[in-house]
Amino acid sequence: MKYLLLLIVFAPLLLSAQCDKGTIIASNDIGIVETESGKVRGYIEDGIYTYKGIPYAYAERFMKPGPAKPWEDVRFMGYYGATAPLDLEAIKARGNGAGMFAMKNDWGYPHEDCQSLNIWTPNINDNKKRPVIFWIHGGGYEYGSSHELPFYDGKNLSKKGDVVYVSVNHRLNILGFLDLSQYGEKYKYSANVGLLDLVASLKWVKNSIANFGGDPDNITVFGQSGGGGKITALLNSPVADGLFQQAIVMSGSFAQQYQTPKMAQKVSSKVLKELDIKESKVDEIQKVPYDVLLRAGKRALAAIAEEAKAKGEAFPRLGWGPVADDYFLPYPMFGKEVLKQVDDVNIIIGTTKTEFAVMAAMMTGEDMEATKSALKMRYKDKADTYMEAVRKAYPDTKKASDYMAIDLMFRPGAIRDANKLVKGGHKNTYMYVFTWESPINDGGFKSMHCMELPFVFNNIELGREMTGGGEEAYKLADIVSGAWINFARFGNPSAKGLPTWPKYTKEGATMILDVDSEVKYHFDKELMEIAMPDLMSSY
């Protein structure tokens, strides 16, 4: 009888727990929130309030964003908004290799009116001020969206950390970075409108996120690859000053190559010529269909890049991207003006061990002799010294591909930026290298570009094609996501399962994120000095 009574007492609780997991609740009176432009409602999934596709701004082509167009009725925000138009033909040309299997890209539906954001929050009406974690997607400055990869979903991170998670879409490629400023005041801001979209979205969050249970005075921006590059641009821009308190730059140093105004204006002049538009009639570019504009932009970029190469001038390898103009990016990167601006911003900078492992494996495979030959061509008489330095930095090096796959693109830039910050007196800089290697593709993925993302978002289930989804991956995801959450809440990434994470100083403290994480000091200095002597000589 007593067991029956216990069942009667606890049955509602058990039922509630069972129903909460995997359930979706959506109705006309659930999750209504006031925003700058009107009321929105979302839905509840697994106890997390979810809003997708909220407009945060509106902008005409090549124009600075302004407020979103207002609405009167309560808008249901149950699906993602439009993505920035992309070069879909180039995407198709990539084929369906192992990398595509791992990523499961969802390119969404493109439209130039793409300024929207998504929110996941534990509650909207309990008067709590939760840390806000603001995600900026990768894809260089040409591709990507807030939901391109399945593990960008914010539900698990929001639920685990009791945080408000925001992801955002913004203008990309030629629509986001065509500098038309030489053609009149109207186009003064055109060079960086893709970044100005991000500023507009952060201002929207600052003004509205309290209604979604978030703290407008505790915002952490984080992004990977091109997203990391965008974070760095925001850190260096006076236009974004005061809009966030923490920043995490993940594998973003390679994406920090900015066009000079002179070079950017050469590109725009070439675009007009490709479109047969006279400079006096520049406004005609507003009516050019996107696919025509895109192709003209690609031809212009290729021509100017070739011209720059012939003259021995630098040209950004990524093509479209930020322009170092006198408005958005007027200062030298992490120069004295910037250092003063970010003095009170807590910063994490990091990379993965083998960013481009898949491509490296294609070069020599596991043929050690072929690998040694390739290294001798690259490093001449320092090839053996290079291999020794790899083994010193990473004692578990065994395979031939391990030598070819070591990241020498993002890591040097990460060290450069961290050192600039520290030398300039910044007191709250942290560094990491993610070294966990996936078993997928016969171990060929290693710790490739994007590998840390399912772990950061605590979304191993949604990233099994990349991680394998084993117990080890779930365990590490719990640790890594916990570190990102703690950083957002406290400005310090130390977390359960990690040794104490010290600040980055001249001693070079770096957290090695793996199953058995550890702190090392200047662990790959010799390797970087051999592989990147020009870049590292000044450090």
Q: Can you walk through the features of this model?
A:
The protein is α/β, with parallel strands linked by helices and 539 residues long. The chain has 3 domains: 24-255, Rossmann fold (3-Layer(aba) Sandwich), CATH 3.40.50.1820; 261-311, no CATH class; 336-367 and 407-536, no CATH class. Helix content is 37%, strand content 14%. It contains 20 helices and 15 strands. It has helices spanning 2-20, 88-93, 98-103, 155-161, 173-177, 193-208, 226-235, 261-274, 290-311, 336-341, 357-364, 368-379, 383-393, 400-405, 410-423, 453-456, 464-467, 471-490, 525-531, 533-536, and strands at 24-25, 32-34, 39-41, 43-45, 48-55, 75-76, 116-121, 130-136, 164-168, 214-224, 246-250, 346-352, 429-434, 509-513, 518-521. Strands 1-4-5-7-9-8-10-11-12-13-14-15 form a 12-stranded mixed sheet, with helices on both faces. Helix 8 (261-274) packs across helix 9 (290-311) and helix 13 (383-393) packs antiparallel against helix 19 (525-531). The radius of gyration is 24 Å and the shape is globular.
Radius of gyration: 24 Å
Shape: globular
As an assembly, this protein is single chain
Average pLDDT across residues?
A: 91
Q: What characterizes the major β-sheet?
A: 12 strands, mixed
The unreliable regions are 1-19
**Proper CATH architecture of the largest domain:** 3-Layer(aba) Sandwich
Task: Please state the structural category.
Answer: alpha/beta
Distance between the termini: 76 Å
Q: Can you identify the CATH superfamily of the largest domain?
A: Alpha/Beta hydrolase fold, catalytic domain
DSSP summary, beta strand count: 15
What fraction of the residues are assigned to beta strands by DSSP? 5-15%
Highest-level CATH class of the largest domain = Alpha Beta
Order of the strands making up the biggest sheet:
1-4-5-7-9-8-10-11-12-13-14-15
Number of domains: 3
